Amino acid sequence: MFGYRTRKPECYSVTERLLLRLACETDAYRLADYYCRNENFLKPWEPIRDSSYYQPAAWSKRLHIMAEMHRRKSAFHFILLDKRQTEVIGVINFSNIIRGAFKACYLGYSISEMWQGKGLMYEALMPTIHFMQEQQQMHRIMANYMPHNHRSGNLLKKIGFKPEGYAKAYLQINGEWQDHILMSLITKNNQS
Fold this sequence. Notes:
This protein is of the alpha+beta class. It is 30% helix and 32% strand. It is globular.
């Protein structure tokens, strides 16, 4: 189902409405376009970005680093594409992967403003989470959201994430320290 190469995009999973695959070094223009189109929409939910974040040249450098993370299995950065592969609809990142006795990672995601509310992120998260649980043997997937981000909270609960705590001034988002609700999804019967 999922596999990867650094330079050549390869199909990883096809859902009813999406093609999901790891970001690769040829995606610089697509990702710059995604973040440019959604700059104002994503601003309240992300750290402050400098102007290079929206440039293909900077994305080329980031994607080179991401490819190395994919190779080392220390992070996985997925892009959500329409079936014709003309547009990045969203992104899903599994980062800070820790193996050994912990077997855990963090989940982050975003979706284009025009594709919100259509169930596409749920559709994309199910196979990518399955990949992390089954193929990467993650026991715990952690995701955090700001209390006023009801869409994200409802999505995580629908998937099966459970609240584990409340962190005051947890992350600096859009220039302000924001509280977050800490959630996790525990893999059942993961004995590896």
